[in-house]
Write a structure and sequence with these properties.
- The complex is a heterotetramer, with two copies of chain A (384 residues) and two copies of chain B (356 residues).
- With 384 residues, chain A is of the alpha+beta class.
- Chain A folds into three domains: 2-128, Butyryl-Coa Dehydrogenase, subunit A, domain 1 (Orthogonal Bundle), CATH 1.10.540; 131-238, Butyryl-CoA Dehydrogenase, subunit A, domain 2, CATH 2.40.110.10; 244-383, Butyryl-CoA Dehydrogenase, subunit A, domain 3 (Up-down Bundle).
- Chain A contains twelve helices and eight strands.
- Chain A has helices at 13-31, 41-44, 48-56, 75-87, 93-109, 112-123, 240-252, 262-274, 278-306, 312-336, 348-363, 370-383, and strands at 129-132, 148-152, 155-162, 173-179, 192-198, 204-210, 216-229, 233-234.
- A four-stranded mixed beta sheet of chain A has the order 1-4-5-8, with helices on one face. In chain A, strands 2-3-7-6 form a four-stranded antiparallel beta sheet, with no helix packed on it.
- Chain A starts with 12 loop residues before the first helix and ends with a helix.
- In chain A, 55% of the residues are buried.
- With 356 residues, chain B is of the alpha+beta class.
- Chain B folds into three domains: 1-100, Acyl-CoA dehydrogenase/oxidase, N-terminal domain (Butyryl-Coa Dehydrogenase, subunit A, domain 1, Orthogonal Bundle); 102-183, Butyryl-CoA Dehydrogenase, subunit A, domain 2, CATH 2.40.110.10; 186-343, Butyryl-CoA Dehydrogenase, subunit A, domain 3.
- Chain B is built from eleven helices and nine strands.
- Chain B has a four-stranded mixed beta sheet, covered by helices on one side. Chain B has a three-stranded antiparallel beta sheet with strand order 2-6-5, with no helix packed on it.
- In chain B, a hairpin with a 2-residue loop joins strand 3 and strand 4 (141-148).
- In chain B, helix 6 runs parallel beside helix 8, helix 8 (267-291) packs antiparallel against helix 9 (302-312) and helix 8 (267-291) packs antiparallel against helix 10 (319-333).
- Classes of the chains: A alpha+beta (384), B alpha+beta (356).
- Chains in contact: A-B, A-D, B-C, B-D, C-D.
- At the B-C interface, helix 6, helix 7, helix 8, helix 10 and helix 11 of B face helix 1, helix 8, helix 9, helix 10 and helix 12 of C.
- Chains B, D: One of its GO terms (molecular function) is flavin adenine dinucleotide binding.
- Chains B, D: Residues 192-309 form the Acyl-CoA dehydrogenase/oxidase C-terminal domain.
- Chains B, D: InterPro entries: AcylCo_DH-like_C (IPR036250), AcylCo_DH/oxidase_C (IPR009075), AcylCoA_DH/ox_N (IPR013786), AcylCoA_DH/ox_N_sf (IPR037069), AcylCoA_DH/oxidase_NM_dom_sf (IPR009100).
- Chains B, D: Residues 2-80 form the Acyl-CoA dehydrogenase/oxidase N-terminal domain.
- Chains B, D: Its cofactor is FAD.
Chain lengths: 384, 356, 384, 356
C-alpha cells in the first residue's frame, strides 16, 4: 500500500495577510449589500455583477499567466481565495466552472488563439462556461454518450443533447464532450473530442431542469446541426475523454467539497457559544475537527496538483469524505439547535438550514457519486 | 385492523389516489387551494373522523383518523386535513360542533393576545383556513379559542416542503366575543401534543412508505451498464436500509397508537417521536442517493415526500428535543431501572374509551 | 410493495406477572452468586449448572408438548423468558442452540423416536447441541459445502470438516449439513441432508478456534469416517437445505439480535441518571428509542412465527437493524461516559464496555452477514 | 521528510519488521517480556530519540520520535517504547540523564503520595518497567518524581489490547529520597498531555495504516463465489472508506506534529485527537466487517491492531472528552468567529527549537 501522507502546507505570513485582505474585502461587499450569505453558493448563487467585481479585483484566473489576464499567483493563493468566497457564501456560481475547469483546460490543451480569445474574458469575470458531459441515460457511464460531431467543411456539425448542465442558461459557452468516431466496444473511451459550443449559436436550445426546490440551476441543452468551427476544437481529436478526466481532477478536492454548508456550521457555533452550551458546542466542534482534518488534506492535494503529481486517488478521497461532511453538518446541527427550516424565513439559521438540507443530497451526487468515487479508490488501493 | 377501519383505509386510499396527482401538489406549493380535493374529503367525512356524531362528526375512533393521516402523508395530500381533524377533536371536547371548514390550530403557550391587534406566527395553512384554534394566553389567561381568519392579514411563509406556514395579523377582532374556553396549561399542552405528534408521526410513516415504493419502482425500472440498477449491491443495500427503517417506524407508530387508544400512553409518544424523526432523515437521504440526479429534479415525485419528511421531523420538536424532555422526566419522575422502564406494561388491563 | 406492518402484541396481565416471576428468580440467582452479568452472554457465557437449573424451572423447551418435557407455553411466554435472560446477561450459551433451533427442528421434521430421545433431555438442560453449517472456504456460500455422507449398511459414513461451530467442545451433538449426493450446478441447494452427529463418536475431533480475545467459543470439527446410524437422519434425504433454512428463521429475529449489549446500556443509563446529566442521558435514550421500536418489531415477528406466517423478509430486517443497534450501544456510550475498557477491570462498566467492543464486530457477522441479509431484503422488496 | 528522518524510519521499519512477529505480540499479551526486541531498540538508540546527546540521548527531534512511534503502532510493537521515550523527555527537561531502562509514566494529578505505603493505579507496562515517572502530588506538593519499581508489588491488569495496565503497590519507599522536582500543575499537565497525546495519535495512525494494508491484502487474496472479494461493490466501499479515513487521519496527525515542532501548537492537539480517536472506531469496525469471521479469530493478525485502536482511542481522554475541553476553552477564551478560528495561523514565522 502506498503511503497516504500528503504534504503539510504552511501558509506564509504574506499568504495570511492576503487572506485577511480578501476576507475584509468580502465582508465589506456583504455589508454594502452586494450579496447575502447562502449555503452552497458556488452551485446556486449567481451574480454576473459580483463575478465582474471579483474579476476586476484579480480574483479570477489568479494562477494564469499575466499575458492571458491572470495574476501568476500560486495555487495556494487561489486556494485561499476560494476558501474565503465559500466560507462567506458569496455568489460565485456564474464564473465558477470557467475559473475552475475551462481556463485550466485551455491552458493545458488549447491553441494560442483559444487562450488569447477566452482567457482574458474569463479572468475579467465576463465570460462564463458550462460543462456538457452527462446525457440522458448515460448515468454514471460517460463512455456511453451519444452526442456526435460530424466533420464538415471548416468545422464540425454537432447533434445531440446534454443534461444536468449547470448554468447553461447564463453561460456563454459550453465545453462539450462529443463522439467524433463511432463507439468501439473494445476501447469505449476512444473516439471522443471536446468542442467549445457557443450557447447563442443557431441550433442550440437550452431548457431548464427545475431543481427540487423549484430553483433553476440545471438545464438540458439540445444541439441540432450546430456548426462549430475548426478552431473551437480543444486539444486533439479523439483525445476528449482523457482531457476531460484530467479536468475532473481539478474539481474533486477543492474547498467546495468541504465548505458548501460551512455558513450553517458557523452560525450554529456562534449560537451555541452565546448559549454557553458546552455539551452541544462540543458536538459541533467534533464537526470542526473533521473539517480541519479534511482541510489539511485538501490543501495537501492542492500542493500536489501544483507540483504536477498524480492526485486521482487522493482527490477522490477528499471528495468522498468532504461531501459526506457537508451533509453531516445539517444533520448534526439540527439536533443541537431547534430550527424550523424554511427558505423564506427571516431567521438566518432557519434559512441556512433549509438550503443545506435541500441541497444536501446533491453533494454526494455531483462530480461523481459516492459509488463511483469508492470504486475509483478501491481499484486504486487494490492495485498498489 | 377492524373491518370498519379497512373500509376507511380503502376509501381514503381510493380518493387520494384519484385526486392527488403530482401537479396538484405543485400547484398547492405555488399557493393554490386544492378545493376539489378538500370538498371530496369533506363529503366523505374524512376530515371529521374520531368525532362523535353528536358533535357533527363522522364517528370512528382516533385510530381510524391516524390511518387516514398515514395515507395523507403517503400521498402528500396538499390540504390541512391533519390540522382540521385535530382542531375538530379539540373543539368537540369543548362540545363545539364540528364545521367541516378548513381549520388550523396553533399551540403557542408563550403568546398572550391582548387588545385588538396581534399576530399569530407560523400558522400552518394560515392563508387557506377559515379559522384557527389557538391554544395560548388571552389577556394573561390560558385559553383555547377559535379565531376566524376573515379579518386577518396574511404574510406568506412556508416550510421546507412548501406547505404554508403563514403569519396572520389580526386587527379589529374583539377578543371578548371569541368562542373560547379556559384551559389548564400543562394538561392542554400535553393533550394537544399527544394528538399532534401522533398525527404527524402517522403522516411521516406514510411518507416513508411512499419513499420506499418510489425507490423500489426506480430500482426495477432504471437501467445502467446494461442491467437494472436493482442488481447492483450498493443499490440493494440502499433498498434494504429503506425497508428496514420503514418497518421499524411502523412498529414504533403502531405501538404508540395502541397505547394512545387504550389511554395508557406515556413514554411511548417520546420514544416513537424520537425513532421516527430520526428515521425520516435517514430514509430521505438514502432514497436520494439511490435515485441519483433524477431525484434532485422538480419533475420527479420523490422530493414531494422527502421535503415533507425533512419538514415534519422538526414539527412539535425533533428527536433531540424529545430525548431531552424524556431525559428530564427520567431523572425526575422515574424510579425504575432501564429494563423495568422498557418492559413496564400497564396496558392490557386498561380499556379507556377512545372516541372523543 | 407489501405492507410492512407487523402485529401489535399486548402482553396480558398473566404474561406480565410471569415476566416478573422470571425476573425475580434471575435476580435472586445472580445475588446468590450463580452468575455474573456479562454482555453477549448467549454466545459466550457457558454454565451447564445454570442451564440445568433453568431446565428444572421449566424454562427450556417451554413451547414444546408436555409429552416431550415441554410446558406447552406460548411463543410469547418464551419470548419473555429469553428477554429476561439476556437483559440480565445470564449464562445461557450451553443450551442456547438446542433450545432455539435443534428442538424446534426435531419437532418439525424429527421421527417420534428422535423426539422421545432428544427433547426431554434438552428441556432438562442436560443435552446441548451445536450447529454444523459453515466450512472452510464456504464463506457465505453454504451451497458449496463439501462434507459428505455416504450411505452404508444401517447408516451413513460422514467425512469432512465444519468450522465456526459454537460450543462444539461442550455440546453433546451437532446437527450437521452434509452432501448426500454430488453437487448439481443447476440446483445447487439440492442433495444435502441433516444428520445428528454424536460429538463423542469415533472419528470426531474437535479443535478450538480461539476468539480474538483468546476465549474459546468456536471450533473446527473434523469428521473422519464417522458412522451415523439411519435413525439419526433428520427429515428427508436431500431436503437438508430447506430444513436448515427454516431453522434459520428462528434465529434471525429473536431478542438476542437486540439485547447482546443491553447490560452496558443499562449500566450507562443508571450512571448518567445518577450524574443528572440530561444532555448525555438524552443521547443514551435515543438508543432506547431505537431499541423500543426494534423490540416492538421483534415481538411482532415472534407473533407471526407463532401464527405460521412467512417471516423470512421481516426477520432479516430485525436482524440487520438489531445487530447494528447492538454495535451502536458501545460506540455511543463511550462518548457519554469516560471508561477504560478492560476485561480484567473491577469496574462493571469498564468490563461491559470491553466485552461489548470486543464482541461487537461479530454481531453483524454471525447468523448471516449484513451483506447477505441486505441481499435477501432487497430481493424481497424488489420482487413484490 | 529530512534525510535523517528517512534513515530513522527506514531503520525502525527494518527492525520492527524483523523482530515483531504475531507470536511475539501473543506472548507479550500472555505476560512475557519482549526482551530481545527491547534490547535491539535500545541498542539502535530508538528509545531515546528526541533527547540531546548531552543527556545521554540519541539526538534527533520529536518529529523523528513520532515517526518511530507511528511505526511502533503499525507493528503493534509490544514494548513500552512510547512510555520510555516520553518519560525520557520529561526527565531530560529536568536535566536527568536518560537510562535506557524501560520506563513508564503516569499523570495522576488527583493522587497524593504520603507515608511509605501507596498505590499507583493503571500504570502502563507496570510489571515490566524498572521505574515510573510520576506526575502528581507528593505530600500535597505537585512533583515530577522517579519511582523505582523494584520494591513494588504488581497487581496485574490489562487494557482491551492486552497491554499491561497494572496497579503498583509501593511499600517501604522513602519519598524523601526519590529523584523529584517541583512542578506547576497546569503547565506540567499540558506538557505531558501534549507529548502523550501526540505520541499515541502517531501510534493510532500507524495502526490504521496496518489495518488498511491487511484489508487490501485480504480483499485481493480471499475468493468467494469464484472471484476475489475485492471485486464486490460492498467490499470496495469498505476499502475506500478505510483508505479515506487513514488519509484524513494522517493529514490531522502531520499538521499537529508540524505545529508542535514549531512551538505553535494550540487547538491542533484537540482537533487531531478528536478526529483520530473518532476514526479509530470507524476503521476497526469496517475492517472487521470486511474480514468477516476470519478476522474474529485469534489466529488472524487483524485483532492485534484493532484491539489497540479500541484501547488507544480512550487513552488520555477520548474524542468526546477533548471536544468538551475545547468547547469550554472556545466559550471562555476565544473571541474569534469560527472561520477566523479555523484559519488562524500563527505558524510560518515561528521557529522554536524542537530538540528537547
Amino acid at each position: 500500500m502506498k503511503n497516504l501522507d500528503l504534504p503539510v502546507v504552511k501558509f506564509t505570513p504574506e499568504q495570511n495577510k492576503f487572506r485577511m485582505e480578501v476576507r475584509n474585502y468580502l465582508k465589506s461587499e456583504r455589508e454594502s449589500g452586494a450579496f447575502e450569505t447562502t449555503a452552497d453558493s458556488w452551485m446556486t448563487s449567481y451574480s454576473p455583477e459580483f463575478s465582474k467585481k471579483l474579476g476586476s479585483q484579480g480574483l479570477i484566473g489568479m494562477t494564469w499567466p499575466k499575458q492571458y489576464g491572470g495574476q501568476e499567483r500560486s495555487a495556494i493563493d487561489r486556494y485561499i481565495v476560494t476558501e474565503e468566497l465559500l466560507a462567506i457564501g458569496a455568489p460565485v456560481a456564474a464564473h465558477w466552472f470557467a475559473d475552475r475547469q475551462s481556463g485550466p483546460l485551455f491552458l493545458k490543451f488549447g491553441t494560442d488563439e483559444q487562450k488569447d480569445f477566452f482567457l482574458p474574458k474569463i479572468a475579467k469575470g465576463e465570460c462564463f462556461f458550462s460543462i456538457g458531459l452527462s446525457e440522458p441515460n448515460s448515468g454514471s457511464d460517460l463512455a456511453s454518450i451519444q452526442t456526435r460531431a460530424e466533420k464538415v467543411e471548416g468545422g464540425w456539425l454537432v447533434n445531440g443533447m446534454k443534461i444536468w448542465t449547470s448554468g447553461a442558461h447564463h453561460s456563454h459557452y459550453m465545453i462539450t464532450l462529443c463522439r467524433t468516431s463511432p463507439k468501439d466496444e473494445k476501447n469505449r473511451h476512444a473516439g471522443m473530442s471536446q468542442l467549445v459550443i457557443d450557447l447563442s449559436a443557431d441550433g442550440v436550445t437550452v431548457q431548464p431542469i427545475q431543481f427540487l426546490t423549484g430553483e433553476h440551476h440545471f438545464n438540458e441543452v439540445f444541439m441540432d446541426n450546430v456548426f462549430v468551427p475548426d478552431n473551437r476544437l480543444i486539444g486533439e481529436v479523439g483525445n476528449g475523454w482523457k482531457q476531460g478526466m484530467a479536468e475532473l481532477a481539478y474539481e474533486r478536492s477543492g474547498p467546495e467539497r468541504i465548505l458548501s454548508t460551512f455558513p450553517l456550521l458557523q452560525e450554529a457555533v456562534e449560537h451555541l457559544k452565546e448559549q454557553n452550551d458546552v455539551s452541544a458546542l462540543a458536538q459541533a466542534l467534533q464537526l470542526v475537527a473533521r473539517m480541519w482534518s479534511l482541510r489539511n488534506m485538501s490543501i495537501g492535494v492542492a500542493q500536489m496538483l501544483e507540483e504536477g503529481e498524480d492526485v486521482s486517488l487522493t482527490a477522490s478521497l477528499v471528495k468522498d469524505l468532504g461531501t459526506k461532511f457537508e451533509q453531516a453538518v445539517a444533520e448534526t446541527v439540527r439536533l443541537l439547535i431547534d430550527t424550523t427550516p424554511s427558505v423564506t424565513s427571516e431567521k438566518l439559521i432557519d434559512r441556512l438550514m433549509a438550503e443545506s438540507v435541500l441541497h444536501g443530497p446533491g453533494f454526494t451526487l455531483r462530480g461523481g457519486t459516492t459509488e463511483i468515487l469508492r470504486g475509483i479508490v478501491a481499484k486504486g488501493v487494490l492495485a498498489q | 385492523m377492524s373491518e370498519m377501519q379497512e373500509f376507511i383505509v380503502d376509501t381514503t386510499n381510493k380518493i387520494l389516489k384519484k385526486h392527488v396527482a403530482k401537479e396538484l401538489i405543485d400547484a398547492s406549493e405555488q399557493g393554490e387551494w386544492s378545493g376539489n380535493l378538500w370538498d371530496v374529503l369533506v363529503e366523505s367525512g374524512l376530515v371529521s373522523v374520531g368525532i362523535d356524531e353528536d358533535f357533527g362528526g363522522t364517528g370512528g375512533d382516533s385510530t381510524d383518523a391516524f390511518a387516514i393521516l398515514r395515507l395523507a402523508g403517503k400521498y402528500a395530500a396538499p390540504v390541512p386535513i391533519f390540522e382540521t381533524i385535530i382542531a375538530g377533536w379539540l373543539l368537540a371536547e369543548q362540545k363545539v360542533e364540528t364545521t367541516y371548514e378548513p381549520t388550523s390550530f396553533i399551540l403557542d403557550l408563550d403568546n398572550d393576545l391582548t387588545g385588538d391587534e396581534f399576530t399569530l406566527k407560523q400558522v400552518p395553512w394560515g392563508r387557506h383556513v377559515t379559522q384557527v384554534v389557538y391554544i395560548g394566553k388571552i389577556n394573561n389567561q390560558y385559553k383555547l379559542a377559535v379565531l376566524p381568519t376573515e379579518k386577518a392579514q396574511v404574510e406568506n411563509n412556508q416550510n421546507i416542503a412548501g406547505e404554508p406556514l403563514d403569519n396572520l395579523r389580526f386587527k379589529g377582532l374583539n377578543l371578548e366575543e371569541l368562542t373560547q374556553f379556559e384551559v389548564e396549561r400543562d394538561s392542554i399542552s400535553e393533550k394537544v401534543l399527544n394528538y399532534a405528534v401522533l398525527g404527524k408521526l402517522a403522516m411521516m410513516a406514510g411518507a416513508m412508505e411512499q419513499v420506499l415504493d418510489l425507490s423500489v419502482f426506480y430500482a426495477n425500472e432504471r437501467q445502467q451498464f446494461g442491467r437494472s440498477i436493482g442488481r447492483f449491491q450498493a443499490v440493494q443495500h440502499h433498498l434494504a436500509a429503506l425497508a428496514s427503517e420503514t418497518a421499524v417506524v411502523l412498529a414504533a407508530l403502531n405501538y404508540a397508537i395502541v397505547a394512545f387508544e387504550e389511554g395508557s400512553m406515556k413514554e411511548e409518544l417520546s420514544l416513537a417521536k424520537m425513532k421516527i424523526s430520526e428515521a425520516a432523515g435517514t430514509v430521505a437521504g438514502i432514497s436520494h442517493q439511490l435515485h441519483g440526479a433524477i431525484g434532485m429534479t422538480h419533475e420527479h415525485q420523490l422530493h414531494q415526500v422527502t421535503r415533507r419528511l425533512w419538514a415534519w421531523r422538526e414539527d412539535f420538536g425533533n428527536e433531540a428535543h424529545w430525548a431531552k424532555k424524556l431525559a428530564k422526566a427520567y431523572i425526575e419522575d422515574n424510579e425504575l431501572s432501564l429494563w423495568d422502564f422498557i418492559t413496564n406494561e400497564k396496558r392490557g388491563n386498561v380499556h379507556a374509551g377512545s372516541t372523543i
